[in-house]
């Protein structure tokens, strides 16, 4: 809401030296958000005067029209002689009054005016447009003034070019501040000054002679006032003061009747609409639209109406979208000359509508049709229903005054019965809310300044004013007292939080995993938790894959991603593709976070109360409606794992790097993984590993790792041989044997024994490793597969697996015999369990 300070002073007698900055400080202290104070006319310097065009000479030979004008500026130039000015505009004629800046003037933006030679003539000043004077963005032509203004008079004062405008961001609960009346009330309260309420007008009582109106929906429209004005002069234009106030408030002057309705709306906060009476057929009605009913609004758009839309109608159908925008079929006609008689034709009779509509209905209609207007902004935030008749009277008075109209005696007013809202509140309730002792007198005084009627002693009965629909409970009243007393006067009290208990084990695991992956060279990439069906198709997930059972959002940010993720891979692969497309080809990314897995057994979510704290049972019921949210860690890799250089060839990423990433995560959790071959989408069937861990004595799947399927990499637009790993951190936490223990550093030497075992090609290396561990006993410190060999000398279908076994005792140095015995026991177990043979034996 833009509020000119000069207009505001009409309702509040501010001190003479009070500036816009001073008013801004007062309003901010009262809880309003004043974003800026615009200084209109800053740097403007005269002489800027009214001029009368005496003669116009059109100069030939130029690409655009150039006119050499003689302008009478009275005694403003010191000589009384006509001023010669070059001008390129063509929207004025001899005898018109224009705005002239004389040499020595400085226009907004620091543009200095001087006499100079141009187009072969000397131009002694400039004839100004609205844009050049910073009045509006209109560059189409210069300003043509009404003929009554005397040549040579000061145009700066005439056009009210010097002013201050407060730009206020009005929150949804303070709809009354979308008017000069509402802002003036706040200013008067802040300064402790009386308010001249512009809504206090003498309004005639309703009678049976007004324009016929029928309201079918009294819930959607609980008040409708109609007034009629006849005998309007179609050639009447909005006076300068009216146009300037609209421009300063951010609105564009259109025509006198429309400008007056906009002016009254800005003044009183009540949206109005003027219908051309000659184009309205029969009774004006208010009803809900018929499904599929069509209607053309003032902006020329043909709209298909919804059954919930509230419409204004006549005998022929809709003539207005209630509270949003009028119809093109009854709009005020522009004044145009009759081609035969030369007489000016236009609207001479209007019906004024001032109604009060349901805020929710108007808000839904405006959003449904994507048609936000000045009227809908006010209705959806709450309009004072008692101001409708005053706004209609104010509009009638201005039409009579400025357009020469005659107000008909008929007054139509339809009002649905209603009672003012009353709230009972303890007198010390604001004290208890703020932690400050205000006292009953202060509470009563502040509530009365808001406009409330207050009765009672220890318990107050407060009648809320009609312009404050946001005041609904005792806390709203307490907020009014606190803000008017000043938020800055509230004492600052530091809370005393309980002693911290540190991070949970789950949080510690989350941090350890992130640090471990970052230390291994991975870069964390945080992604939005939203996915769509398209990416699940690109991943090649089967129709019955549980990852397709997504949780859908009621209000998604993007129609392409309407669901919550069931896997971390889509977001990481999108980040990989984005970075690869920008030239970074060697990538290793990771993410830890929640996925959302719906089971289908979740009960509907309960709606929790807002007037008190929910009970533990209600919170538990709400939590039960949530989907399962396991915590995952995932990595994606592409390009080179080690760069090529003078030291040799580089190493491309492979499925083994993805598997090692899983082991890194598991080690951070203190869990030993078992790796087996697997087939799982979206991985390559021959290069996919299952990551297994023991939970409660049972081996379970905790994740998968490997190279992505070629069809997946092609569909997603990522590099070939892209690898990925995803692992369930919650399952790893259950597999962990308590907190991770720091490793014991032994002071005794290690004994290393290498063995090479020949097994069938179908035997998994993990099975051989498990057998070796079981047979080696407690002396085995670590075991590592360092070579896999196949060849003719082993025979078809056979492979050799070479392992390095490290033995160490915690309390002594092992002898060669003890290390050899442990190795032999490990080999024997492998022979027994897997059919292995010691190579070379």
Automatic annotation (TrEMBL):
Keyword Manganese set for record: no
Main location: cytoplasm
Domain B5: 418-492
Subcellular location: Cytoplasm
Cofactor note text: Binds 2 magnesium ions per tetramer.
UniProt keyword list: Aminoacyl-tRNA synthetase, ATP-binding, Cytoplasm, Ligase, Magnesium, Metal-binding, Nucleotide-binding, Protein biosynthesis, RNA-binding, tRNA-binding
An example molecular function term from Gene Ontology annotations: phenylalanine-tRNA ligase activity
NCBIfam families: pheT_bact (TIGR00472)
Protein name (record): Phenylalanine--tRNA ligase beta subunit
Organism: Streptomyces lonegramiae
Taxonomic placement: Bacteria, Bacillati, Actinomycetota, Actinomycetes, Kitasatosporales
């Amino acid at each position: 809401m833009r509020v000119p300070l000069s207009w505001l002073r009409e309702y509040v007698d501010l001190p003479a030296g009070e500036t816009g900055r001073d008013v801004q400080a007062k309003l901010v202290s009262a809880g309003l958000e004043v974003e800026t104070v615009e200084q209109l006319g800053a740097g403007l310097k005269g002489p800027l005067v009214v001029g009368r065009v005496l003669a116009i000479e059109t100069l030939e030979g130029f690409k655009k029209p150039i006119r050499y004008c003689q302008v009478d500026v009275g005694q403003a130039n010191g000589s009384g002689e006509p001023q010669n000015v070059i001008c390129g505009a063509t929207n004025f004629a001899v005898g018109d009054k224009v705005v002239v800046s004389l040499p020595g003037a400085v226009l907004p933006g620091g543009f200095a005016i001087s006499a100079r030679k141009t187009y072969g003539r000397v131009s002694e000043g400039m004839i100004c447009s609205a844009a050049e004077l910073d009045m509006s963005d209109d560059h189409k032509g210069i300003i043509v003034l009404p003929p009554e203004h005397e040549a040579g008079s000061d145009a700066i004062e005439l056009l009210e070019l010097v002013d201050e405008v407060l730009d206020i961001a009005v929150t949804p609960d303070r709809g009354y501040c979308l008017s000069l009346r509402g802002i003036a009330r706040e200013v008067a309260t802040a300064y402790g000054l009386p308010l001249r309420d512009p809504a206090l007008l003498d309004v005639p009582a309703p009678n049976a002679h007004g324009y016929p109106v029928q309201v079918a929906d009294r819930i959607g429209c609980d008040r409708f006032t109609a007034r009629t004005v006849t005998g309007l002069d179609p050639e009447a234009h909005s006076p300068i003061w009216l146009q300037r106030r609209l421009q300063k408030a951010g609105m564009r002057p259109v025509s006198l009747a429309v400008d007056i309705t906009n002016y009254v709306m800005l003044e009183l906060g009540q949206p109005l609409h003027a219908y051309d009476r000659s184009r309205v057929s029969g009774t004006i009605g208010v009803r809900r639209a018929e499904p599929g009913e069509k209607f053309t609004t003032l902006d020329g758009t043909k709209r298909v109406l919804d059954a919930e839309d509230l419409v204004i109608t006549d005998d022929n159908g809709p003539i207005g979208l209630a509270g949003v925008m009028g119809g093109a079929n009854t709009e005020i006609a522009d004044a145009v000359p009759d081609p035969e008689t030369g007489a000016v034709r236009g609207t001479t009779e209007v019906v004024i509508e001032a109604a009060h509509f349901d805020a929710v209905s108007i808000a839904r209609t405006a959003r449904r049709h994507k048609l936000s207007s000045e009227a809908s902004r006010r209705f959806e935030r709450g309009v004072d229903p008692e101001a409708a008749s005053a706004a209609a009277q104010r509009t009638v008075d201005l039409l009579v005054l400025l357009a020469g109209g005659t107000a008909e005696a008929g007054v139509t007013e339809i009002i649905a019965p209603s009672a003012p809202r009353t709230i009972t509140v303890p007198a010390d309730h604001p004290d208890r809310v703020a932690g400050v002792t205000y006292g009953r007198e202060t509470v009563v005084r502040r509530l009365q300044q808001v406009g409330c009627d207050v009765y009672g002693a220890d318990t107050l009965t407060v009648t809320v004013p009609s312009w404050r629909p946001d005041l609904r409970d005792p806390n709203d009243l307490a907020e009014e007292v606190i803000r008017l007393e000043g938020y800055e006067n509230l004492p600052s009290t530091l809370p005393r939080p309980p002693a911290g208990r540190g991070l949970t084990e789950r949080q510690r695991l989350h941090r350890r995993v992130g640090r471990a992956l970052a230390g291994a060279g991975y870069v964390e990439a945080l992604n939005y938790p939203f996915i769509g069906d398209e990416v699940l198709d690109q991943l090649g997930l089967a129709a019955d894959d549980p990852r397709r059972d997504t949780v859908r959002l009621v209000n998604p940010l993007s129609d392409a991603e309407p669901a919550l993720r069931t896997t971390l891979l889509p977001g990481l692969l999108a980040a990989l593709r984005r970075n690869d497309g920008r030239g970074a080809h060697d990538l290793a990314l990771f993410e830890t976070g929640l996925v959302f897995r719906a089971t289908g057994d979740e009960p509907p979510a309960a709606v929790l109360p807002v007037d008190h704290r929910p009970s533990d049972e209600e919170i538990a019921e709400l939590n039960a409606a949530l989907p399962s949210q396991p915590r995952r860690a995932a990595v994606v890799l592409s390009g080179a794992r080690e760069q090529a250089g003078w030291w040799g060839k580089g190493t491309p990423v492979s499925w083994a790097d993805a598997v090692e990433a899983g082991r890194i995560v598991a080690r951070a959790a203190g869990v030993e993984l078992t790796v087996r071959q697997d087939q799982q989408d979206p991985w390559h069937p021959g290069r996919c590993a299952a990551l297994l861990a023991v939970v409660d004595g049972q081996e379970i799947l905790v994740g998968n790792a490997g190279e992505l399927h070629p069809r997946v990499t092609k569909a997603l637009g990522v590099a070939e041989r892209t690898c990925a790993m995803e692992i369930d951190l919650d399952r790893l936490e259950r597999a962990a044997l308590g907190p991770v223990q720091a490793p014991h550093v032994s002071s005794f030497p290690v004994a290393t024994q290498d063995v090479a075992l020949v097994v069938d090609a179908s035997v998994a290396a993990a099975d051989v490793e498990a057998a070796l561990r079981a047979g080696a006993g407690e002396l085995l410190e670590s075991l590592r597969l360092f070579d896999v060999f196949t060849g003719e000398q082993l025979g078809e279908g056979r492979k050799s697996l070479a392992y390095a076994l490290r033995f160490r005792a915690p309390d002594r140095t092992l002898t060669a015999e003890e290390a050899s015995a442990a190795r032999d026991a490990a080999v024997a177990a492998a022979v027994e369990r897997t059919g292995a043979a010691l190579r070379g034996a």
